[in-house]
Amino acid sequence: MTTPRPALSRRGFLAGSAVAAGAFSLGFHVPLDAEAAPGAPEINAWVVVRPDDTVVIRIARSEMGQGTLTGLAQLVAEELACDWSKVTTEYPTPGQNLARNRVWGDFSTGGSRGIRESYDAVRKGGAAARTMLVAAAAREWGVDPAGCRAEKSVISHPASGRSTTYGKVAALAATMEPPKDPPLKDPKDWTVAGQSVKRLDTLPKLDGSQVYGMDLTLDGMLNAAIRDCPVTGGKVKSFDAAAVSGMPGVKKVVQVGETGVAVIADTFWRAKTALDALPVVWDEGPNASVSSETIAAVLKEGLDAEEAFVGNKAGDVQAALRGAAKVVEATYAYPFQNHATMEPMNATARWTPERCEVWTPTQNGEAALAAAAEAAGLSPRQCEVYKIHLGGGFGRRGATHDWVRQAVLIAREMPGTPVKLIWTREEDMTHGRYHPVTQCRMRAALDEKGNLTGLQMRISGQSILAAIVPGRLGPDGKDPVTFQGLNPGGAEAAIGYTIPNLLIDHAMRNPHIIPGFWRGVNTNPNAIYLECFLDEVAHAAGQDPLALRRKLMANHPKHLAVLNAAAERIGWDRKPPAGVHRGIAQIMGFGSYVAGAAEVSVAEDGKVKIHRIVAATDPGVAINPQQIEAQVEGSFVYGLSAALYGACTVKDGRIEQANFDTYPVMRLDDMPAVETVLVPSGGFIGGVGEPTIAVAAPAVLNAIFAATGKRVRQIPLKNADLRRA
Q: How far apart are CA 157 and CA 163, in angstroms?
């Protein structure tokens, strides 16, 4: 069982929830119906068994298309030894988690942690429930539980020939003492976990019954549209509510905090129409003159700054550079990028002086509860959040819940009435929490034989933690997230190369555009920086890029294994089709080892065609192989969209891209064939949804160089001139 945690104070809960919200249901549902249903006993916090043998598995993490719901249910069902065909799921709420001393633990679903940080807890929950059900049957029969067996929700006693089902003994099992340390199955004996079972959330999406936040309706509900100051740091100066108060359906025009104005109406369209007509004057503040160019200049200055946070250091890199036979140098850059979720931010809130309830898609119900309580002016125990299926998360719905705060503040203007706030696409695109902007200057030292003897990497740019969760900064103010994929060691994001003289540091420069945990986070730029630059080094040394990497990876067998797997599948040692060129890249991120290899052609007019991309991944243990393949394919859609098109620019202090016409994503004819190679080595549990994103861009960029002889050192590719001279 999960060890209960002490009850938290409101201050402690708010702080803890914000820190826990790192960077990812089956239909809309008021949680824990099973617990309240007559004759449906809760065996433990994770498992409810109904009399008809239906097994309800509680899922604390969020499902947003990545398959976490099914994977966690598989793990519980495996240890429970239940009939998978009779499994259903439900979300416990953060309020219930708080009331029960956080028996379900952390609700945060980001950083590819949804399964790996629940792995032990849910397995123990399933195993404990199985043990209790078997003990209940044994007690009824007056036999030793050790002589009983459980399989597919049936308990049998071979010696006497008796059998029963989980549903028949569930009530008795619920009264029994939970085992403290139930035995867990060896993964080699799994029959449900580790298998490519069908996802539990597919059918509602196909038949249209899936309810998303924007679909939710409640009796007496009103709707709201909001406009926030277009420049971060600005605020509302004035607005003329009288100009729109008489428009059809309008109930109220309200100021939301210092920075926003909202219209409440009977329908969203009427609220939006009135908001569009509302005269608002902004005090745009000191950031109104900031542009992409001024931000780039600040970051460029950081490349030469004397002060920097050291993330990885070995030997004496300056001495290696001074004594080098050849020095290779390059500067790369990475832009702001938007999460661009298909479903814009939205929440429905109902507030009274005694109680506040919120219905919203969220990657972290506890952080949403903290935001709701703060905005409501109530304690967390007076509030509740009902998590709805997400129409995309990618990190945007995790660490910050600004839209929840706004929804509650608006609902306070209409006590007792549910109010649904929906951001327009334009509001969503221009008020995001963007992938941080960085630049990176690298210098490599080569000896007379072409060996890499030293590498210096200076990253200049934003810190996510400094902006949104400063409590997670190191004691010296360092942001460890900046160095993802470049760490000297550890189980999370270690560099895959041994270089005798190495210095990787970060000059923190924080423009006013707010950064966030964008899917893949800092492994994305870091993989481009390191993997593309290593290709430059290989070219300067006259070496094959794969061969150079292999020489540096002798002490990194798991990194090397996925690299070799990707190279073998792409056919690195075989000649590609005419006009097609290859590139390769690898990194470790979110506890998993990944490599990618791409086949690309570039036409005379500079148009890039990505024909094929291979991903090799070692997540340690594969919970659902088919779902891993789907995640890899999806991650390449996201990563290649960013590489081809994804960039947000700043003018007059504000983000310029307000919709998909100026912030495009991949279309079907852009998408290459994707091949996934699973090489699970066992012994650990890594993430799946994010790691492979990072290798998509560098593999393609390296293939483009092979095709054209031109280095692209700043994405997106749409801005690069790859035409033949």
A: 6
